[in-house]
Design goal:
binds zinc ion, two-stranded antiparallel sheet, 74 residues
Length: 74
């Protein structure tokens, strides 16, 4: 599962992922936001990446992480 791989994501992997998906510029412009709270995603707060029609990102805010986990366990 993609999520399992992403949980232990390394910064380099994340940057490569962004490059491969043409998202690096968006990321650098802080245009990539947590899909739950709309906080700009940074290397410090990235919690998870998932795919739902397009790539979605979840920050490591406690309430977002909890909602994300509930969503996954549905
Ligand atoms: Zn969030």
């Amino acid at each position: 599962m993609l999520r399992k791989e992403i949980e232990a994501i390394l910064e380099d992997d994340f940057i490569n992922f962004l490059k491969q998906n043409n998202l690096l510029e968006k990321f650098q412009n802080k245009e990539i936001e947590c899909s739950l709270c709309n906080t700009p995603i940074t290397l410090d707060n990235i919690f998870a990446i998932y795919f739902d029609q397009s790539f979605k990102f979840c920050c490591n805010d406690f309430s977002c992480a909890e909602k994300f986990n509930q969503r996954e366990n549905r």
